[in-house]
Amino acid sequence: MDINIQARGFSLTKALRDHAERRLRFALGWADDRLRRISVRLSDENGPRGGEDKRCRIRIAFAGAPSVVIEDTETDVYVAIDRAADRAGRSVARRLERQRNQHRRLLPTLASVESLTWAWR
Fold first, then answer.
1. Which of 14, 21, 53, 67 is the most exposed place for a label (fewest CB within 10 A)?
2. Which pLDDT score, from 0 to 100, does residue 1 have?
3. Of 107, 10, 91, whose CA–CA distance to 50 is shortest?
4. H helical segments located in 35-76
C-alpha cells in the first residue's frame, strides 16, 4: 500500500506520520491488493487563530475505478486522522461490495447470452 502524507500549515512530525500510517494500515490493510495509492493531506485551516480547524483529507485511488475522497475537520489533528481513517475503511468496503454485487448481477445475464449463442449453433 503506497501512502503519501503531506502537511500544510504545520510541520509533519515523525509521530504524526507514524500515527496516520498505522491508522490507515489498520483500516485498509485488508484491501491492500485492490488499492493503488492513498494520499493524506493534513492542514491547519485557521492557522494560529485556533478552533475546529485541523483537516484530514484522504484520497484513495483504486485500480480501474474512480477515487474515494474522505475529509474530516476537528480541533485535534490526531482525532481528525482517526475519524477519517475509520470512514475510509467503511467507504472502501462499501465500494468493493458494490463492485462485487454488480459483477454478480452481470453473471446471469452473461450466462443467458451464452445459452442463446449455443441455441443458434
1. 14
2. 75
3. 10
4. none
Helices 14-28, 77-120: crossing angle, 10 deg rounding: 30
**73 within 8 A of 53, measured Cβ to Cβ:** yes
Which pLDDT value is given to residue 110?
Answer: 57
pLDDT band at 108 (very low <50, low <70, confident <90, very high): low
The fourth-level CATH superfamily of domain 3-120 is Ribosome hibernation promotion factor-like (3.30.160.100)
Per the DSSP assignment, residues forming a β-bridge with 20 are none
The mean pLDDT of 76-94, rounded to a whole number, is 96
Entry pTM = 0.78
Strands 3-8 and 65-74: unpaired
Gap between the Cα atoms of 30 and 97, Å rounded: 13
* Domain range annotation of the chain: 3-120
